[in-house]
Amino acid sequence: MTATVEFEAVDTNSDIGLLSVPRHVAIIMDGNGRWAQRRGLPRTEGHRRGVKTLREAVKHAQKRGISYLTLFSFSSENWSRPQQEVSFLMALLRRFVYDDLKDLVKANVKVRVIGSKENLDKSMLTLLNDAEQKTAHCTGLVLVIAFNYGARDEYVRAARKLAERVEAGELKAADIGEDDVSACLDTHEMPDPDLIVRTGGEQRLSNFLLWQAAYAEFYFAPTPWPEFDSGAFDDALLAFSNRDRRYGGLSSDATGT
Ligand code: FPP
């Protein structure tokens, strides 16, 4: 397990009585389709509204002093959705980068993209690389976009990298440790998520950050992503701040034998 600083005291959070914030929050933005269908709208309208929520979530994460915000925007399994929905999601991501990149730079947000780059459309690859490069100098919130991401796929790619290093004689199989595995994951040099939020009422991880979630706290919100406003985000942060994280040990106030 990588040792990280888990909490940062942020004065501006006293308005809601939040004395500490997670350093890294990761969100499964679920419930877009159901939100739209309940209103008699096409599922894609839920995704469109979801981008609005995403922008607000980025601002709110900055306000609360969160250092890393990871958003699950498209999974490696989402390609099996109807072609029209897949195309719509691709177009939304492209538009987000085109429209918001300047504002993200102004807000000192560094973009990082995780997920498989293999077999990606060349123009999409260029766009995502561009977003990373143009924000590389930013020192504020790190916005991690999980795109074409699946944790098992990430792990397979990491296993291949490790095997190549062993084949090249750089590493002995018996010497492989957790840090070597972490260093081969897409999230290398990032702290593990402290809090994983899933909106939309389902309670599962859906192949998201399986290795990195080892000691994360989970928060499942019934709210669909298009309605996950700053108040709902604060509810998740408040729940987190009341959790007792023990990492397999005992809490500091544990007594007796
Ligand atoms: C899950 O809702 C959500 C997605 C598969 C896509 C999330 C994408 C966005 C919010 C916008 C695009 C991202 C960026 C970075 C601009 P669902 O469709 O599975 O909802 P359901 O469970 O109600 O069907």
Automatic annotation (TrEMBL):
One Pfam family in the UniProt entry: Prenyltransf
Binding site for Mg(2+): 30, 217
Superkingdom of origin: Bacteria
A single MF term (Gene Ontology): ditrans,polycis-undecaprenyl-diphosphate synthase [(2E,6E)-farnesyl-diphosphate specific] activity
Top EC class, one word: transferase
Keywords per UniProt: Magnesium, Metal-binding, Transferase
Cofactor annotation remark: Binds 2 magnesium ions per subunit.
CDD domains named in the record: Cis_IPPS
Residue sites binding substrate per the record: 31-35, 43, 47, 75-77, 79, 81, 198, 204-206
Listed InterPro entries: UPP_synth-like, UPP_synth-like_CS, UPP_synth-like_sf
Similarity annotation: Belongs to the UPP synthase family.
Summary of subunit composition and partner proteins: Homodimer.
Its biological purpose: Catalyzes the condensation of isopentenyl diphosphate (IPP) with allylic pyrophosphates generating different type of terpenoids.
HAMAP family, sorted: ISPT
Protein name: Isoprenyl transferase
Organism: Pseudovibrio denitrificans
